[in-house]
Design brief:
orotate phosphoribosyltransferase; alpha/beta; 201 residues; Rossmann fold; transferase; two-stranded antiparallel ribbon
């Protein structure tokens, strides 16, 4: 399988067997697959005239592969900026799981799955996957509105001793997530904004 490469190359990628990602084309594919119009209640409680059904793009292999490359590019940039390697990636149940998995495949980093709540059976854990105190973690998200769900997951990771360095979301609805996440002391990155997807409420 050929390795894809984002427009800005990183040392992670193999040279020679690469395909440049068309970011605008990927944004169109995501919008065409997932943008729904109507009246929707968001997790934050707000109502919206549009909804991005993440499962309609995160279940498409070609879209996932390209997103994985873009996530890997951002993770590499974060590590370069901070001068320290990232140890693990994390994603939350359910929407973040395919995204963090493909990001892990592209970066070669191990992943952590954050459950919505602790299991009441078996190991009774809320975090699935190995984690060590002090691990530098990047959290991968699907769609952010206010950032509340992402920050809840960050809290769970911090309780386990993780040093959460950044949140990278696939799409930022631009409704306060950046402000709230950065106020919590976490770097915020978005692969795409609603504007990139051509959404104008």
């Amino acid at each position: 399988m050929r390795r894809l490469e984002a427009c800005t190359t990183t040392e992670h990628y193999d040279r020679g067997m690469t395909t440049t990602i068309d970011r605008a084309g990927l944004a169109r594919k995501i919008a065409e697959a997932s943008l729904l119009r109507g009246e929707f209640t968001l997790r934050s409680g707000r109502t919206s005239s549009y909804y991005l059904d993440k499962y309609l793009f995160s279940t498409q292999p070609k879209v996932l592969r390209e997103l994985g490359v873009l996530f890997a590019e951002r993770v590499a940039a974060i590590a370069r900026d901070e001068g320290e390697p990232i140890a693990r990636l994390a994603g939350a149940e359910l929407g973040g799981i395919p995204l963090v998995t493909v990001a892990g495949l592209e970066t070669g980093l191990p992943t952590i799955f954050v459950r919505n709540a602790k299991k009441d059976y078996g190991t009774a854990k809320q975090l699935e996957g190995a984690i060590e105190p002090g691990d530098r973690v990047v959290f991968v998200e699907d769609v952010t509105t206010t950032g509340g769900q992402s920050l809840e997951a960050v809290g769970v990771l911090r309780e386990a001793g993780a040093d959460v360095r950044a949140i990278i979301c696939t799409i930022d609805r631009q409704e306060g997530a950046r402000k709230n996440i950065e106020a919590a002391g976490v770097r915020f990155e978005a692969l795409f904004t609603k504007a990139d997807l051509g959404i104008d409420e």
